[in-house]
Amino acid sequence: MKVRLRGFRRLADAVTGSLGELEKRVIAVLQTHGEQNVTTVLDSLGQDYAYTTVMTTLDRLYKKGLLERRKEGRAFVYGIRFTQGEVERTVAEDVLDRLLDSSLGRVEPVLATIVDRVSEKDRELLDELERLVKAKRKALKD
User: What is the pTM of this model?
Assistant: First the structure.
């Protein structure tokens, strides 16, 4: 039995799925063009929005922790704080931390499920998991 989180294929989609349409468009602009101020984001969006709407959206994304900003003259310049890969990794780490919390119960069934799922996907992934475990054990000994 597979469980989806509110219809999303991936957990990271749930995080980005919580964003509004304009927020997604603004993030796409910053991912494509790098750091931007309100005016250049507005230009990239095709002038479909009011300056104050884009300014508010950038500020909200900053307050949500998804953007970085710095002062340049009298304006803020905004940039992406996390890549899509970093978002996915952080979500995965949070989920695994919760699953491996021994205070919630036995951890062995979780580990067995991870190994089963990896081996169902690809035998080479199982070999890679084994290599990573061996490398981590060696690093912990040193």
Answer: 0.60
